[in-house]
Amino acid sequence: MKSAFLRIATVAVVIVALAAIPTAAQQSETMTDEHIARIKSNCPSALATLSRIRLNDAPVYINHNQTYFSISDKLMARLNSRLTFNRYDATQLVKTASDYNVQLTKFKAAYKQYDDTMQDVLRMNCRQQPVSFYDKVATARQQRQKVQDAVVQLKTLIDQYEQDVKNFSATHMSSSGAKS
Q1: Which tens digit of pLDDT belongs to each residue from 90-105?
Q2: pLDDT the model gives residue 172
């Protein structure tokens, strides 16, 4: 019971520390001795928590990446190709699909950068380098936010493509499904 409470308390401390990083990271040069001591004393639990986060992020990234690629390759590209082959004007669909592919590339690059930083963080000795560790965790947190921003943008583009398909259908398809 005591051990479970200690683990929960440690995780809570790490989460609070991670949440405070954007403002405190700018002040890392003036970090107090108390703050440095806290980083050193929580080092093992912080590393364990960060390791679990990284291990949990990997399969989520893989699944999202596969899904996003399938949407591009199996849905958007095939529909655009078929419409173009049948001499429909699918310009807006092609543009949205192109924007989506650019964003997908950004998503992959952002995750790679984040994962590399997390790997560096987990290799650090936070007891010997508490300030560097803190700064590196701050960087990882910012990079993780960029991954999240890319995911939000991909979702927006998926919604845009869906709307483009509806608009195309309303404009070009009659109730019988033939060209107008």
Answers
A1: 999 999 999 999 999 9
A2: 84
Strand partners, 173: 179
In sequence order, what DSSP letters do the residues of 73-114 get, joined into one string? IIIIHHHHHHHHHTT---HHHHHHHHHHHHHHHHHHHHHHHH
Res. 178: pLDDT tops 70: no
φ, ψ of residue 173 to 5 degrees: the values are -115, 130
pLDDT, residue 174, reads: 62
- Neighbouring-strand partners of residue 179: 173
Distance CA 5, CA 10 (A): 9
Which residues neighbour 93 within 8 Å (Cβ) at sequence distance 6 or greater? 76, 79, 80, 83, 161, 164, 165, 168
Q: Which two tokens stand for residue 84?
A: 């173009």
Q: What is the pLDDT of residue 106?
A: 97
The DSSP result for 25-88, as a single string, is: HTTGGG--HHHHHHHHHTHHHHHHHHHHHHHHHHHHHHHHHHHHHHIIIIIIHHHHHHHHHTT-
How high is the pLDDT of residue 31? 86
| Category of 87 on φ-ψ map: left (φ > 0), alpha (ψ -120 to 50) or beta | left
Q: What's the CA gap between 39 and 45, in Å, rounded? A: 10
Do the Cβ atoms of 134 and 25 come closer than 8 Å? yes
CA of residue 167 relative to chain centroid, distance = 30
β-bridge mates for residue 69, sequence order: none
